[in-house]
Amino acid sequence: MFTSLFLLLAQSSTPYGSPVPQTISPSAPMTMSEVRFNECVDLALDDPASGVVEANKWRIEGGGFLARHCLGFAYAEQFNWAAATKTFAEAAQEAEIAKYPRVANFWAQAGNAALAGNQPTKALEYLNAALVQGSLVGLEKGEVHLDRARAHVALNDYAAAKAEFVLVHKLAPQDPLGWLLSATLARRMNDLVLAKSDIAVAAKLAAQDPAVALEAGNIAYAGGDVVQAKANWEKAVAMDAESRPAKAAQKYLAQLVTSVAE
């Protein structure tokens, strides 16, 4: 039983988010096109189908890369990752030609969409294009390195992913997802000391996240501490029983009950 459970844990993954909409900040004077872009993105998030119609209408009217970028968000909201990735990349290419100052964000969102669509090699290409712009700093740059780490994990290049997480923790130390995913990677690499250290930071930053509790249980189990593993998995279920992490935790708890009965 324990072998089968360990294999189940090794295969578990943390759900990744879709591209986070980057509207134009009102802190700087906005052009009429940028105002319309914000309105288009809001519509795409509230009603993706209408967002597709509006973005295409705007493109026909000459909305250019901002209209195309909005269209990418509408596709992403529909989980049409192939279309979203292609559209984001086309918008980024057009924005780069136009020397638009936010082009790095466009490339980053193309990379994020490629990851969601299980295209890690293409994701790395787009994420690299984002970094080459040299305009990203702090959290935004850290998020790109986080996506690069995820892409390397998908390509089974764990050493490269580990190096990326060093940069993630330096640039975005307050991002719990970075610590959670680095803890998961460390567990997979059988570095339980690092895994425990990283998941402890994640737990401080996101105390009520069932994904963190699930991984804490995974790490405890990998280290042979069944009691602590059970406690963490039960915590994940108590936090949000309907969430994906909680349902995974319920599976592991059921396996534990079966092993005790045997």
Give me the Rg, rounded: 20 Å
Number of helices: 14
- Average residue pLDDT: 89
Shape: elongated
End-to-end Cα distance, whole Å, is 9 Å
Q: Name the beta content range.
A: under 5%
Report the strand count.
0
Order of helices and strands: HHHHHHHHHHHHHH
- Range of helix content: over 70%
> Largest beta sheet, briefly?
none
Give the helix/strand class: mainly alpha
Q: Point out poorly predicted stretches.
A: 1-18
Molecular structure report:
This protein has 262 residues and is an all-alpha fold. It is built from 14 helices and no strands. Helix 2 (32-46) runs antiparallel to helix 3, helix 2 packs parallel to helix 4 (64-77) and helix 10 packs antiparallel against helix 11. The longest helix has 18 residues, at 244-261. The protein is elongated.
